[in-house]
Amino acid sequence: MKKRILGFWEIWNMSFGFLGIQFGFALQGGFMSRIFQSMGAHEEDIPILWIAAPMTGLIVQPIIGYLSDKTWHPRWGRRRPYFLIGAILSSLALFFVPHSSALWMAAGFLWILDASINISMEPFRALVADKLDESQRSYGFVVQTLVIGIGTWVASNLPWAISQLGVSDSAPLGEVPMSVKVAFAIGAFVFLLSILYTVFTTDEYPPEDMEAFLKEKAEKKNTFIKDIVENIGKMPTTMKKLGLIQFFSWFAFFTMWSLANPALTEHVFEAPAPVESEYNMSLEADKAAYNVKNTAFQKASNRVGSYMGVYGLSSMAFALLLTVYTSRRRINRKYTHMVSLILGGIGFLSMYYVPSPEWLIVSFSLIGLSWGSILSMPYAMLSSSVDPNKMGVIMGLFNMFIVIPQIIAAIGGVNITYKLIGESSINAMTVAGISLVLAGLLNFLITEKKAIY
């Protein structure tokens, strides 16, 4: 079926829900490690506490993709019911996670939060392919990236901005500062509101042959595992090659999300999290000393979060440039992705050498170029290489190449690789840089013309 060419605002409306999704991801990515450290977690324990995020994605996204492919409701369509369910659950989890009273509880809420975000996110990827003609695919994914960039920058700056309004950054031992709690509450509200906006402003195409759709749905009612295995076995060659690129790309970004806060607060801001065991909290002098160091760490963490927001701003600018360009002509997706990833790798590598915190703007700006490309180019390349009737399940399976590297990183990959260089956690950013440069070079494997243009 030849699909209608959509205007910018129609594409904007169908992408706007990603603002809320990215609020969730940015708050999680920028501040979960801070929450874990505030509750007493040591640096080397942080990656394993993060394992909830990729594990839930590995399980949830293929299931949601498969189910949404086989869903149709006359009022709510195919993908929108999943947007709404995920938004409600994510908003609740976002609100409660900083109120956790124990480390295990915070890790548990991360499981719930990430599972809920994934319920909303996967169908958004499929919706772009559902709604847009192939000539607009790059444009659609780039607009989606523009919205993501806005969400990343705003959400990453929330704790800092709230602190500037006078909300406290101090907190007793084992508790999260009020500035973070307020930021997560705002994020919960924005998440739900933005998803509702897309749900009520966007319609969906019904199946081309409703009778055949219903017949196939009835015949394959209990064939989920069989269909998943079959689709893995018939994975397109382009998808396999992109999977290798995705592996090293997402290993790098998981390393950033889990260890950028401890690495940069220590190496750049010289304000590491105080170690509880080094203080006798029954002594007033030790308690006061702990509070001074903890407040310095929390304020440094605010600034790390703000600097991390720069990569959202940079990806937004990059996406805006690509939006203007791809609205008129096609681009070479392969070389766009290659150059962007290599520049992001240079951004990570530069963190070891920054002479002062302000230089992190340059580092994260370069990382933002790679982030903008990661969120658009692989999906544009993949969507041109798969059966439109299986778009949801294929996008869900493609998520394996996102979550598997993160699981490997979480269970020891990050700690093992960066400690080959040295004990300081800033070396984790060097590992991320090397990984991203390698991902960029692997784009030479992409040779299918339909995927490239």
Description:
The protein is built from 19 helices and no strands. By secondary structure, the chain is mainly alpha-helical. The radius of gyration is 22 Å and the shape is globular. The protein has one domain (8-452): Up-down Bundle (Growth Hormone, Chain: A), CATH 1.20.1250.20. The mean pLDDT is 84. The chain crosses the membrane at residues 12-36, 48-68, 80-97, 103-121, 141-162, 182-200, 242-260, 304-323, 335-353, 359-381, 393-414, 426-446.
In CATH, what is the class?
Answer: Mainly Alpha
Distance between the termini: 21 Å
H and E string: HHHHHHHHHHHHHHHHHHH
Number of domains: 1
The fourth-level CATH homologous superfamily is MFS general substrate transporter like domains
**Total DSSP helices:** 19
Outline: globular
Share in β-strands: under 5%
- Briefly note the CATH topology name: Growth Hormone, Chain: A
Radius of gyration: 22 Å
**Beta-strand segment tally:** 0
The helix fraction, in percent, is: over 70%
pLDDT < 50 stretches: none
CATH architecture: Up-down Bundle
Major sheet summary line = none
Membrane topology: Multi-pass membrane protein
Main location: membrane
Protein name: MFS transporter
Subcellular location: Membrane
How would you summarize what this structure contains?
It comes from Pseudotenacibaculum haliotis. By secondary structure, the protein is mainly alpha-helical.
List the helices and strands and how they pair.
Elements: H1 8-15, H2 17-38, H3 46-49, H4 52-69, H5 80-96, H6 103-131, H7 137-164, H8 178-201, H9 210-219, H10 224-233, H11 237-267, H12 284-326, H13 333-350, H14 360-374, H15 377-383, H16 391-398, H17 400-419, H18 427-441, H19 449-452
Helix pairs in contact: 1-7, 1-8, 2-5, 2-6, 2-7, 2-8, 2-11, 2-12, 4-6, 4-16, 4-17, 5-6, 5-8, 6-16, 7-8, 7-12, 7-15, 11-12, 11-17, 11-18, 12-14, 13-14, 13-15, 13-18, 17-18
